[in-house]
Automatic annotation (TrEMBL):
GO terms for cellular component: plasma membrane; type II protein secretion system complex. It is a single-pass membrane protein. Keywords: Cell inner membrane, Cell membrane, Membrane, Protein transport, Transmembrane, Transmembrane helix, Transport. The gene is gspM. One of its GO terms (biological process) is protein secretion by the type II secretion system. This is General secretion pathway protein M. Coiled coil: none annotated. It comes from Sphingomonas changbaiensis NBRC 104936. It comes from the Bacteria. InterPro entries: T2SS_GspM, T2SS_M_periplasmic_sf. The chain crosses the membrane at residues 20-40.
Length: 155
């Protein structure tokens, strides 16, 4: 078989041999590209996506575990709307509009709040057993936020 190939190869002109060598080299590059590099690149991309999903799930589980460690809902000293209104006034958000949505849910709208004090206030509410169900914050033209939030809590 090798002898037949060598005879065939020697029968080609020098130009044909060079063209065949270039063709075989390009074929080898194509096989390496499509057979090795691309599948490895796809596998790495899939691994990164799965890792990102796992990180998100880990955060959700840790958040759920923290909620379980806090224990059952804490009984509030009054209706949720009045507790949130008082907490907003104490935190310096006198412009907060608190609207009750039943016994255990309120919506809060603050047209202008600095980010650090606002999120500290949210953290203090969560420490009291009031949970943020939904939050939308938009940047104002000055360094403040316009915030709409739905809070739930109370026993």
């Amino acid at each position: 078989m090798t002898a037949q190939f060598l005879d065939w190869w020697r029968a080609r002109s020098r130009r044909e041999q060079r063209l065949l060598l270039v063709m075989f080299a390009l074929l080898a590059v194509t096989i390496l590209w499509l057979g090795i590099y691309r599948p490895l690149q796809d596998a790495l991309s899939n691994a990164r996506a799965r890792h990102q999903q796992a990180v998100v799930r880990l955060g959700e589980v840790r958040g759920g575990a923290a909620a379980l460690r806090r224990g059952p809902a804490v009984a509030l000293p009054g209706p949720l709307a009045s507790v949130v209104t008082q907490a907003a006034n104490d935190a310096g958000f006198a412009n907060a509009i608190v609207s009750p949505q039943g016994d255990r849910r309120v919506t809060v709208s603050i047209p202008s709040a600095r980010p650090a004090p606002f999120f500290a206030w949210i953290a203090s509410l969560e420490a009291r057993g009031i949970v943020v169900e939904q939050l939308a914050a938009r940047a104002n033209s000055d360094p403040t936020l316009a915030v709409d939030a739905t809070l739930t809590g109370g026993a």
